[in-house]
Structure formats: C-alpha cells, structure tokens
Amino acid sequence: MSKLIIDGCRSLSGSVSVNGAKNSVLPILAATLINAGENIIHNCPDLKDVDSAINILHHLGCKVRREGKTVIVDSSTITRYDIPDNLMREMRSSVIFLGPVLARCGKSSMSFPGGCELGPRPIDLHIDAVKKLGADVMESGGKLECTAGKMTGKDIMLSFPSVGATENIILLATACHGRTRIKNAAQEPEIDDLIAFVNKAGGMVARRGSEIEIIGTQTRENTEHKIMPDRIETATYMCMGAAVGGDIEIKNTCPHHVETITEALTQAGCEIVAGTDFIRLKRDKILGSTKPVRTMPYPGFPTDAQAPLMAAMLKARGSTIFLETIFENRYRHVNELMRMGADIKVAGRVAVVEGVTKLFGTKVRVTDLRGGAAMCIAAMSALGRSEIEDVFHIDRGYEKIENVINALGGKAIRE
Ligand code: UD1
Q1: pTM
Q2: SS3 for 212?
C-alpha cells in the first residue's frame, strides 16, 4: 500500500491544471451504452473509478480503448445485461449503469450497491423512478433484477434532487415512448454535461431550472464530447492555497462552478481573481474564519468540498461551523485532523472548528476520498513531516496528488 510523505509549511507558488471531472466522466461512460455508435470521450482523467467503469463496459461486451486522455467506446457489440458483484463493488457510483443498461437491453441484473464509507447509500429514488417508467423490479438476496415492460414517459417528482437518480432517469427516459419530466431534478453542472453528451448522440433532453424534459428517441450517432473540468479538484487546490498561503494559479477550470468556495475563502481573507478558465488565489495574511458552511445540492455548497474547506480553516482565526446535510457519516476525517493538533467538535451533523496557531505533522490514515484530500491540505500547513496512509482512497478522485502538491511549491513523495 502506498503512502504519501508531506513536509509542511512551505509557502505556495506556481500553477496547476485541472483534469476532467470524475463525477461527469462516470455517468457519461455509462451513457455510451444508449448510443450504439462510436463515442469519443476527451479529457477523461486517469483514475481508478474510470478504469472500473471501463471494466464494466468491457464486461458488457463493448469495445473500449484508451488513447491518453481520450476513451473511445463502441457499444454496438454489447452482449450482456448483468454486472457481477465484484465489478459493482469496485466503484461506489456503479448504480448509474442501471438506467442505461435497462434502456439498451430491456433488462438489467446487478447487485445492490449497499452502504459506503459516507454512510448508507439508498437507491429508493432510482428504483421508484424505474418502476414508474414501466419496468418490473425484483429485489432479492442483495440483487436487483429489472425487466422493461412497455416503457412510457411520465412525470417524476423527486423528493430530493438526487444526482444519481436524475442521471439514471435521463438515460432510461431516452428509451421510453413520449415525454418524461423530472421535477425537483438535480442541477449539478455534471448533469448539464451529461445532457450535452446525450443530445450530441441524438437525444432530446432540456433542463429548465429544476425541471428536466426528455423526449424518448433513438440515439445512434457517432459522438465526440469533452468532459467538463472537475470542480471539486478546483476547490481542493483553492483550499491548499488558502491553508498554506502564497500565490497560486489554477488553470483549465470553470470558476463559475466554484462560486460558493470562492465566497467562503474570500470572506476568510484570500484574494481571488477569476478569469474565464482560471483562478488566481493569493493569501498573504493570517486567515480569518468564514460564515457557517451548510452543504446543499448545487448551486449550494458541495458536500465534496466540506472536508477540504474544513482543512483550510484549521488555522484560521476564530471558529467556523459546518453543517453536513447530504451524507450522514461525512466527518470521518475529523479524528485524523485532530491527531495533527486541530480543534474540532462534532455533534451529529454539525462540526465546529476552532482555529489553532499550529498543526503538527504526524501519521494519519485516509478514511475516504475527500477526507484524504483534507489530510493532504492539513499536512501541507503543518509543521514537520506527515505520513498519510491508505492513499488509494485519494487516487479514486485525484490523479497523482503528489505531483500537484509539488507543482504548487509543496513537498510530497509517494512511497
Ligand atoms: C452525491 C452528491 C454529489 C457528489 C456525489 C459524490 C449531492 C446532492 N449529491 O451524489 O454532488 O458529487 O455524491 O460524492 O450533494 N438518496 C436517497 N435515495 C436515493 C438516492 C439518494 O435517500 O435513491 C439520498 C442519499 O442518501 C444522500 C442524498 O440523497 O443523502 C444525496 O444523494 P445523491 O445526490 O443521489 O448522491 P450521489 O448521486 O452519490
């Protein structure tokens, strides 16, 4: 198992480039199933979850090849509709294959995704929608077997704007007769990227605010698409700059997608200049705290940026309050951050960070992807050397994070 060794307290300068978004490339790779032509997907990050999605496509009979950052999927050769348990478990978000497999094959068989390190991950909204659109669903022994009957578009009201459920409904609805309308749909930028891909493939999907309309249609067109920049990677690098101090540039990003992070860090005393596709962040005085941070569906503050921002606030003057509303168990990084000298109190979904003057490098163990990013940020602003174990969690969402830390003027090596 590899670990990261980080030497902290080195003022940052330099620039980094943001990769394609993990949370966009995964649903788009799944969406290639509904388009039995050649799908050329550019700007695919080199991540374990992307490999896992490609493994699922291979298993289903697709021809997939990777040329650098481009993945080419020909799904005309699909032969199966089942996804075995080991492939489902490789990737947390494998449930996004439910809609496209069912749309393409008229059947799907996969194991239930179950819980994960963030707490339970129910899929009731996905299942209710699949049933409403006309599929029979059998759940037994941890398996989910679906058979499409006469699939007809319907109005679906989501009780919560679930990102995964919205993606599954969009993809399944392309194979339904007539019009589907999703009300209270997720509005994350990754949803718009998926819609753009589906429309390029010949689909008919439109979003107006929190309502998405899908007209069922055959999608059979050779498609080329470039994945949008990763907004959580962008937020993570901004938090590195804020935590450690210095002057950094983040390139190939979309500043508009991280406005809540920009607002929080500006309030804390960072100087942030946003161009069309870059962000420059300067921090030369001691960081202050920021207004209470409440994680919310987009355009609210992203749950994925909660841990990185918390790490940035550990040495801020005053206290910062976090309220995590999306996932039950998303403070597992707190104990590890406290080992480095942080002062954090957690009560249920609330965490209060009291800024300390110093953090100390030590040995910590990564608990989950974004918690791991938080540990890197804390280690970069701690005195001395930190050893970060179980880096494989971080590798699920960041391409060689040590290269980014070094490019920004920090010091990290992987052992
Ligand atoms: C969530 C995040 C997304 C992030 C991703 C990876 C939100 C709204 N979504 O997407 O931005 O990129 O994690 O970390 O912030 N839920 C149900 N029943 C369902 C589906 C979801 O109760 O059928 C609940 C979940 O338990 C959770 C919430 O809805 O509390 C958010 O779920 P959802 O948006 O579906 O999660 P992801 O698609 O994983």
Answers
A1: 0.96
A2: strand
